[in-house]
Structure formats: structure tokens, C-alpha cells
């Protein structure tokens, strides 16, 4: 039976730590973007044409805020998946320690 083990114990532990950090940070950023925090205006991808051509400029910027917030939540979900894979690798490495070859 082929082994699903593809990384060592230190790399798997590092993946878990980075995943936890990424989930916390991106979830908080997603919340702040969804709340339309003024501090994050530099990270919203809009141009002057978006403001000039729209009759309701805040509505367009708010929709961009929401889109960036959704992107942050999607990235946090990807970090959750990477963390789950890393956790599986940690468990497989622990099982490998007890196996006699």
C-alpha cells in the first residue's frame, strides 16, 4: 500500500503553525474589509474612473470592499485546508515512528 506521507514532522508542524496564523490574520482582515474599515482603503483596488463615472461612488467602493473581504475569507478557507493536510501529516509521522519495518 502506498504511503500518503510526503513531508517530515518538522515541516508538518511548521505548516500547522503557519496555517493557524494565516487563518486568524485573513479572517480578521475579511471582517475588517466587510466592515469597510477606512484604514484599509489603500488595499481596495479602485481607480479614479470608478469614482468619476459612478453616480453613487461610495456604493461602488463598498462593493469593492465586500469583494476583497470575500477574497480574504476564501484564502482563510484555503489555509484551513492546508492546516488539515499538515495535521494529517503529523499524525502519519507519529504512526510511522511506531511501525517496525
Automatic annotation (TrEMBL):
Superkingdom of the organism of origin? Eukaryota
Keyword annotations from UniProtKB, A to Z: Membrane, Transmembrane, Transmembrane helix
Q: How does it sit in the membrane?
A: Multi-pass membrane protein
GO molecular function terms listed in the Swiss-Prot or TrEMBL record: RNA endonuclease activity
Where does the record place it?
Membrane
Its cellular-component GO annotations read: membrane
* Keyword Zinc-finger assigned: no
Family of this protein: Belongs to the RNase K family.
InterPro entries registered for this protein in UniProt: Ribonucl_Kappa, RNase_K
User: What is the protein name given in its UniProt record?
Assistant: Ribonuclease kappa-B
Transmembrane segments annotated in the record for this chain: 12-35, 68-90
Amino acid at each position: 500500500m502506498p504511503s500518503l506521507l510526503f513531508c517530515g514532522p518538522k515541516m508538518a508542524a511548521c505548516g500547522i503553525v503557519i496555517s493557524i496564523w494565516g487563518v486568524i490574520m485573513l479572517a480578521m482582515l475579511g471582517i475588517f474589509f466587510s466592515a469597510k474599515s477606512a484604514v484599509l482603503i489603500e488595499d481596495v483596488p479602485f481607480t479614479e474612473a470608478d469614482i468619476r463615472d459612478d453616480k453613487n461612488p461610495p456604493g461602488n467602493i463598498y462593493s469593492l470592499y465586500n469583494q476583497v473581504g470575500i477574497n480574504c475569507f476564501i484564502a482563510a478557507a484555503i489555509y484551513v485546508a492546508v492546516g488539515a493536510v499538515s495535521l494529517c501529516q503529523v499524525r502519519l509521522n507519529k504512526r510511522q515512528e511506531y511501525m517496525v519495518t
